[in-house]
Amino acid sequence: MSSDMPPAAKKVLAERTHHGDTVIDEYAWLIKKDDPDTVAYLEAENAYTSEATTHLKALQDSIFQEIKGRTLETDLSVPTRKGAWWYYSRTEEGKQYGIQCRVAAEGDDPPVLTPGESLPGEQVLLDGNELAGDSPFFAIGTTSVSPDGTMLAYSTDFSGDERFTLRFKNLTTDELLSDEVPGIFYGGAWSGDGSTFFYTMVDEAWRPNRVFRHALGSVDSDPVVYQEDDERFWIGVGLSRSERFLILGAHSKITSEVRVLDANNPLGEFTVIRSRETGVEYHVDHQNDRFLVLHNQNAENFELAGAPVDDPASWTPVIPHRADTRLLDVDAFQSHLVVHFRRDGLTGLRILPEGAEPYELEFPEPLYDVAPSGNSEFVTSRLRLGYTSMVTPPSVYDFDLPSRELILLKQRPVLGGYDPADYEQFREWAIAEDGTKVPISIVIKKGTARPAPTLLYGYGSYESSIDPYFSVARLSLLDRGFAFAVAHVRGGGEMGRRWYEDGKLNRKKNTFTDFVAVARHLKGEWSGPIISRGGSAGGLLMGAIANLAPEEFAGVVAEVPFVDPLNTILDPSLPLTVIEWDEWGDPLHNADVYAYMKSYSPYENVRDVVYPPILAITSFNDTRVFYHEPAKWIARLRAVARGGPFLLKTEMGAGHGGRSGRYDAWHEEAFTLSWILDRVGVSK
């Protein structure tokens, strides 16, 4: 391998002064995305990384073939009922993207589908492969069928910057309308009569801040029906399952305000459920003569309330607050409610039938994740749910409320003779520096010698939980003698709202020290060498633990990593910065927050010590974590730290989620897993 690396500095230096602290950023020039020198630098880094990993090509190819060989490439989703149709998607061998279809409904049971065969009367709504054409990147932002089933709204992105173009298709004639709206955000909602579509757009800081109303066939500029001027808030719009109300939510990290509009009166005015009150979050669904309101007013883990449609600010408890149970969501149906909750680090479902006692569904595995999924019909006696664990592939069930029978509709096929009984999963607990017990989820192949090399995954921000999940690609590690573990660190939501509060703002360092405590707990009985992995805010975690305890890790994978948080959060002109102040604090106006963030920012705290090998993966068109954060971080690691090697790989035509096609994504995962295996000397 050549020792020549890309030049990592220019003569032009950026100087930052805040709260009396002056800092020189010698790599700030990499921020200039349109500068040919920046593009040349990133391409040189890619060439260097390619050369540094050329010996992994055979292993990478083997893992790709394993992922491909375990995947039923021609497959179908379980049909979901909506009105007079069953909707489903299918994939075909050799094609990168899914195909969305529907077929006329007959009876209450979903039709039996056979992979590779079309049902009589099948209608293709969208073929992602045809839409993508030869584009190296393609993504769909929304697909929404009008309530009467005659019109389709959909949006597409061909660059990865998450700005979509909205189009409409007449499903009766299969004709594409001339209506076209560029630059929209995710999501959207139809009016009740299907004449009007509501959508959102973002401001210059990539904050969805305006809702527009588009009347089909209109050539006039679409009017703004709501604009959110508070830079801490973002907005979204949807149609209630009952199709009675359009629901427009404005949310910050800590506060909510919801408006509703009669869905059959799209030209009307949205009215407020309850005016925003700092620190009070709430979400709304509709059932018959009442709204269901999930809120945290004097209820840290949230409670469920009901409110009359004609007096929506009057909340009466339906499920009171419990200190041991975090209420996550409520789904309202005509004759029952379904509450998704979290308790003891696991998710669950509570059914509230009209006129009968509530009850909870039970599942046999020690670790699992369950959630409602694909419940479009308001009038139904069945609940569609998704279930998975670290050994059980994603499974789709219907729960029949009258009989309380759980009916397995489909479990994702895993080819090649996969048997869940060959693997086992465990829950362990580490003790953090302050005595807090931190849960760990572990999966390993039975018979694997311990201590085993371990891939340890973590996230720990935004109350996002990394619940137990199945992965086909992970089998390539487990079958080579690895253990896989998830550190459920504070800052996530695994143990309730308090778990999140104890890992944000001026308690953010708990996220990092929890992860190190988990690594130290695993070493010995469970784990030999540990490679850590995390992405986005989990990439911040990776950078922080590399500074905090580099000796504990045999390698670090940081994907689209948020490793320069201080510089980013100091700049309110950047996407999402002001919104993020409720998560990280405001270092621009608060000297204490500035000092605290500077004390843990990975980029600011690279040390002259031996670091493990680090692989940073990013995307040039990412609008959430800019490519320059990992580029600057890797450059500083090379300049200051010892050890390594420190590698940077940039997808030049992708966004925050990486490459879009499934085969491309498998190649990328095979590359990453081959690098991980190489850290412990596994070469085949």
Question: What's the topology here?
Answer:
Blueprint (H helix, E strand, L loop, with lengths): L13 E5 L2 E5 L10 H17 L4 H14 L4 E2 L3 E3 L2 E7 L7 E6 L18 E5 H5 L6 E7 L5 E7 L6 E7 L4 E10 L4 E2 L5 E7 L5 E8 L8 E4 L6 E6 L5 E7 L4 E7 L8 E2 L9 E6 L2 E6 L7 E6 L7 E4 L6 E7 L3 E8 L2 E8 L5 E2 L8 E4 L9 E7 L6 E6 L4 E7 L11 E9 L5 E9 L6 E7 L16 H4 L4 E5 L9 H5 L7 H14 L4 E9 L1 H12 L6 E5 L5 H5 L7 H8 L6 H10 L9 E2 L2 E6 L8 H13 L1 E2 L2 E6 L10 H17 L6
Parallel strand pairs: 34-35, 34-36, 36-37, 37-39, 38-40, 39-41
Antiparallel strand pairs: 1-2, 3-5, 4-5, 5-6, 6-7, 8-9, 9-10, 10-11, 12-13, 13-14, 14-15, 16-17, 17-18, 18-19, 20-21, 21-22, 22-23, 24-25, 25-26, 26-27, 28-29, 29-30, 30-31, 32-33, 33-35
Helix pairs in contact: 2-12, 6-7
In short:
By secondary structure, this protein is an alpha+beta fold. Helices cover 18% and strands 35% of the residues. The longest helix is centred in the N-terminal third of the chain and has 17 residues, at 36-52.
Mean pLDDT: 93
Query: Strand content of the residues, in percent?
Result: 25-35%
Outline type: globular
- Biggest β-sheet: strands ordered side by side in the sheet: 32-33-35-34-36-37-39-41
Question: What gyration radius follows from the Cα positions, in whole Å?
Answer: 25 Å
End-to-end C-alpha gap = 20 Å
- Binned, the helix content reads 10-25%
Task: Enumerate the spans where pLDDT stays under 50 for 5 or more consecutive residues.
Answer: none
The beta-strand count equals 41
Major sheet: size, sense and barrel closure?
8 strands, mixed
Number of helices: 12
Instruction: Please identify the structural class as seen in this structure.
Output: alpha+beta
